[in-house]
Each structure stands twice: as C-alpha cells, then as structure tokens.
Hints:
There is one protein chain. By secondary structure, this protein is mainly α. A two-stranded antiparallel ribbon has the order 1-2. It has two domains: 8-59, no CATH class; 65-173, Helix Hairpins, CATH 1.10.287. The two termini are 36 Å apart. Helices cover 55% and strands 4% of the residues. The longest helix is centred in the middle third of the chain and has 20 residues, at 86-105. A hairpin with a 6-residue loop joins strand 1 (8-11) and strand 2.
Amino acid sequence: xxxxxxxxxxxxxxxxxxxxxxxxxxxxxxxxxxxxxxxxxxxxxxxxxxxxxxxxxxxxxxxxxxxxxxxxxxxxxxxxxxxxxxxxxxxxxxxxxxxxxxxxxxxxxxxxxxxxxxxxxxxxxxxxxxxxxxxxxxxxxxxxxxxxxxxxxxxxxxxxxxxxxxxxxxxxxxxxxxxxxxxxxx
Length: 186
C-alpha cells in the first residue's frame, strides 16, 4: 500500500532556515540553533513569545576556526604543499566540491551509526583504522565536504585571513538581507 506523506515547511525561529516537517508546526528551531549554547537565552525568548524579527541578530560561535585553520595549514606544509599557487589552491577547492557533488549524485554517504563512529574512531592500530576509513568514509559525500573545508580553512591561514572575524561579519550582513536575501531563488 502506498501511503501519502504530507510535508510542511516552516522557518527556523533562530536563523530563518527553511525546515521541512511532517507536522504543521508554526515555530521550530533547526538542529544548529537547538545546539547553539551561546544563543540559548535569545532562543528561549523566541520560544516564549511570537517572533517579530524573522532574522534575529545572533552571535555565531566561530571560536577555534583560526586555530583549526592554522593546524590544517601546518599539516599542508608538512605534507609538502607549502608553495601551492593561489590559483591552484582555489581550483583544488572547486575540485573537492565537484567530488562531493559526484558522491551525492551516486548516493555515496558515510551513513554511520553512533556505534560505528565510535568503533572507527577507537581503532588503536593505524592499519585497522585505515581499512575501516576506506571501507566506510573514503570518497563519501561527507569526506569530500571535509576535504573542501580543510582546503578552505588551510588556505585562509596561508593567506592570513582571520576567518573567525570575517565569518562573523558575513553572517551579520546576511542577517540584514531578509528572507531569501531579497528574493533570490537559491
């Protein structure tokens, strides 16, 4: 028997992200806003009262991104990629996005349960870890997105970009642009 499932859309009360649900829910929070401890008080206020500003002025927790960028760049240098030209760095970022798109199109996702994640993360022997990684994560959608993120953050450090600052400013600017940034389709 085929069962029709109705899907409803609502907007996250915290950040304005469009959410899909099987329930007619007027106000809901996305998983990022639910987990964001820095904005807990603001989000509690939204739950108690009707939301008047669909794009609240949230402070995004970017702490640690510069340190992570520095670590990723240090690894890249150690691996022999110190003198990679800017154009090549940018093309490599694009190639990782293309690989993520290919993985998505062929439905290659890591899809690991919590126990599988713990098992893979807990391997002591590097050879066993490498086998488990290749079998469960390598070349998956998630793996390619992480490759993209690593290249972007490592390059930010290489170019002396304060990614924490710039991400905060960009998100503040975006919060002032309105729903779908004034009518954009995507």
